[in-house]
């Protein structure tokens, strides 16, 4: 490591922070206000609310003994005050003296009772995003690489590991302490609204995401460290703010698999759980073990954050309906203030433009065009790698064009452009084919929300603080009109960038350095049609193609054995006549492809890059051998759930729990996770492709397989 690294609580803050740049939402400082669902009016300027992680069951469980500790005897009919119950978690005790960043490590006796278990850590996220973070022996612990026992807390290694686990579990909190602190700082959640499945959904917000720190390093840039599944926030609505193991494992691995394919994404740093009986998370199928994911991104600001500040007509026409309530929630109507908060809109736009995206000198229009470009490039890469997000709601689309929110996502198995990976999307609004147009839909909502700022800037070449003060409806309308005028044609530009980026991606996957118009049809379209018509696997077909030698295509024996191998490795089982038909169709396409690759211009381009061998090497470096398929996720989740619960579910009473079994279960769960993480982060390695055979190699080869037929195109009915 070139940079000196520091334990998490000592990481430096960036020169600007979200909390110093953006307004805070009005929340009372009663402990319950951090946990009570609160709908903020569109006119309130704030973006974020201060609160502390609370990785505890919800509703809160309180034993009689705990009530007694609070001085309440329930048997005598005395009442427990919810504020007293919640106050036990207030991090008021200073654990460490001030670090270089001016913050303190705080906790409380009750908070220290959390028993976090670190399940996994991503070495590549650590290296890419937080190279200045010292995690002690945490990576070794997760790799089961520790000879006897983990480093003691008296050692530097042990301290760094413990600090990492404490902060990531919320057992301890990094914050400025005391009222007199000049720049108060501490964990926070943000407010956003959004369109879900095309319909205005009102306020959503970070219902289970709590950010704990921002930091910056030379190589890793600005990073926000966020916990997902860390408990109730004011945006949790009716839910518990928690996450089940299944959803944590899916996101932990999904982010890192997507990053390894060079698709922009939020990253996963670590995954934690806690002993099953302490925190069972109840979902459709009963209690499941919990998870807490730590994810990283330069920013988690989504389109929905802007919609919250300027909700527009959709929001005015549709007030939120309270299920089971007595009708419309009236205090959401705002009369004169329905325009939202244009000052908050300006400051949020400025924050993302300048502090996050480094575009100080650009106009707001240029910045929005950049946001559009980044998202167009992102979705193009999704298409090229068959990544399906599953829920492209406007609250799941970021300003920096990073893939976010790994819910029912999937990688394409058998190629079908109409494939729908989300069980709850029967009409296929977010099908593979529709992804670019749904990103466009989301961007349209962003352009609409930002219209006053873009338009004002276009007229005055500057949007000063207080620009909207005293503005009439007509003024605002004229800014919006101006925005329409300057943004005109952006949809076409989005489509062009998206198509162009896709084209580049496809050409690389086919190992072509030059482009001809006929490639769209003869190479790309025909190939995809073949995969679809014969139900062949998307990724393994490309990997097979990365061994095809066009120079030998006139050798009919070579062609026929290549085709037959290709069909075998891209299907689970095909009746022999279907396999023959597929082989015939493929070999005619391969002839066209070979002729294309052998053309002079194309050959000349490859001569400089190592000829045919060099070309195949390059194809293998971008066509993955390992794909994080649904069957793999299901398998690893099932094994981890079993390992983490068996010691408890196999006994009748608490005191029968075998601690050794618990410990071994944790080790098994880590081992399962690290194996798949390793393959996900190095997907192009020749896993299991070795000539010799061993148990390991066979296992790798199995994990690179298509899995059982019934798991192809599997839709996850993901409990979250
Ligand atoms: P998602 O589908 O993950 O984008 O979530 C949609 C909204 O529901 C977001 O505001 C989430 O923060 C919120 N949400 C999802 N799951 C939970 C949960 N278990 N507890 C609280 N809020 C949640
Ligand atoms: Mg979301």
UniProtKB/TrEMBL annotation:
Needed co-factor(s): Mg(2+)
KW Disulfide bond (keyword) present: no
A GO cellular component annotation in the UniProt record: mitochondrion
InterPro entries (alphabetical): SelO
GO molecular function: AMPylase activity; ATP binding; metal ion binding
Transmembrane segments: none
Endpoints of the signal sequence: none
Keywords, ordered alphabetically: ATP-binding, Magnesium, Metal-binding, Nucleotide-binding, Nucleotidyltransferase, Transferase
Family, per entry: Belongs to the SELO family.
Name of the protein this chain belongs to: Selenoprotein O
Protein species of origin: Kwoniella shandongensis
Taxonomic lineage from the root: Eukaryota, Fungi, Dikarya, Basidiomycota, Agaricomycotina
């Amino acid at each position: 490591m070139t940079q000196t690294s520091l334990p998490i609580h000592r990481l430096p803050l960036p020169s600007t922070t979200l909390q110093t740049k953006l307004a805070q939402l009005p929340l009372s400082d009663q402990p319950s206000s951090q946990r009570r669902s609160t709908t903020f009016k569109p006119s309130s300027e704030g973006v974020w609310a201060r609160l502390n992680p609370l990785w505890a069951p919800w509703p809160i469980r309180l034993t009689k003994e705990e009530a007694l500790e609070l001085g309440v005897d329930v048997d005598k009919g005395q009442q427990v005050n919810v504020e007293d119950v919640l106050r036990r978690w207030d991090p008021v005790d200073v654990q460490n003296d001030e670090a270089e960043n001016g913050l303190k490590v705080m906790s409380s006796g009750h908070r220290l009772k959390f028993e976090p278990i670190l399940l996994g850590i991503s070495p590549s996220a650590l290296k890419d995003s937080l190279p200045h973070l010292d995690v002690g022996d945490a990576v070794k612990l997760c790799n089961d690489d520790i000879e006897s026992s983990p480093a003691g807390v008296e050692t530097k290694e042990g301290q760094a590991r413990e600090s990492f686990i404490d902060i990531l579990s919320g057992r301890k909190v990094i914050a400025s302490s005391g009222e007199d602190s000049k720049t108060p700082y501490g964990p926070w959640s943000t407010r956003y609204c959004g369109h879900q499945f095309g319909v205005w959904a009102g306020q959503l917000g970070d219902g289970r995401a709590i950010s704990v720190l921002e930091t910056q390093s030379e190589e890793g840039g600005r990073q926000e460290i966020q916990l997902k599944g860390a408990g109730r926030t004011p945006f949790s609505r009716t839910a518990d703010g928690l996450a089940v193991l299944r959803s944590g494992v899916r996101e932990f691995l999904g982010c890192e698999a997507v990053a390894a394919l060079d698709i922009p994404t939020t990253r996963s740093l670590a995954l934690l759980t806690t002993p099953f009986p302490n925190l069972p998370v109840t979902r459709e199928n009963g209690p499941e073990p919990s998870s807490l994911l730590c994810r990283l991104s330069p920013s988690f600001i989504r389109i929905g954050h802007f919609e919250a500040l300027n909700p527009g007509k959709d929001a005015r026409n549709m007030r939120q309906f309270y299920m089971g309530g007595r009708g419309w929630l009236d205090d959401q109507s705002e009369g004169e203030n329905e325009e939202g908060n244009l000052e908050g809109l300006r400051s949020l736009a400025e924050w993302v433009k300048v502090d996050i995206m480094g575009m100080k000198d650009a106009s707001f229009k240029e910045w929005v065009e950049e946001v559009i470009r980044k998202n167009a490039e992102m979705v193009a890469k999704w298409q090229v790698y068959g990544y399906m997000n599953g829920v492209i709601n406007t609250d799941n689309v970021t300003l920096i064009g990073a893939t976010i929110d790994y819910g029912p996502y999937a990688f394409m198995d058998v190629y079908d452009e109409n494939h729908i990976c989300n069980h709850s999307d029967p009409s296929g609004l977010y099908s593979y084919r529709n992804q670019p147009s749904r990103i466009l839909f989301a961007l349209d909502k962003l352009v609409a929300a930002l219209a006053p700022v873009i338009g004002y800037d276009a007229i005055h070449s500057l949007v000063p603080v207080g620009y909207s003060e005293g503005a009439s409806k007509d003024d605002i309308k004229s800014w919006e009109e101006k925005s329409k005028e300057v943004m005109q044609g952006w949809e076409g530009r989005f489509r062009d960038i998206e198509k162009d980026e896709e084209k580049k991606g496809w050409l690389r996957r086919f190992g072509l350095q030059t482009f001809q118009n006929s490639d769209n049809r003869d190479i790309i379209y025909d190939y995809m049609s073949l995969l679809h018509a014969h139900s062949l696997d998307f990724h393994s077909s490309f990997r097979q193609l990365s061994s095809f030698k066009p120079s030998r295509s006139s050798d009919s024996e070579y062609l026929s054995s290549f085709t037959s191998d290709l069909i075998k490795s891209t299907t689970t089982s095909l009746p022999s006549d279907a396999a023959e038909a597929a082989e015939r169709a493929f070999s005619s396409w391969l002839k066209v492809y070979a002729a294309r690759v052998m053309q002079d211009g194309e050959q000349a381009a490859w001569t400089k890059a190592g000829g045919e061998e060099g070309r195949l090497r390059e194809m293998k470096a971008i066509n993955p051998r390992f794909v994080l398929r649904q069957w793999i996720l299901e398998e690893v989740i099932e094994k981890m759930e079993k390992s983490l619960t068996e010691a408890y579910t196999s006994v009748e009473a608490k005191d029968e729990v075998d601690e050794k079994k618990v410990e071994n279960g944790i080790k098994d769960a880590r081992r399962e996770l690290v194996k798949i993480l390793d393959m996900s982060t190095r997907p192009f390695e020749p896993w299991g492709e070795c000539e010799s055979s061993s148990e390991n190699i066979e296992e790798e080869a199995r994990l690179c397989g298509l899995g059982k037929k019934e798991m192809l195109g599997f839709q996850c009915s993901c409990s979250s």
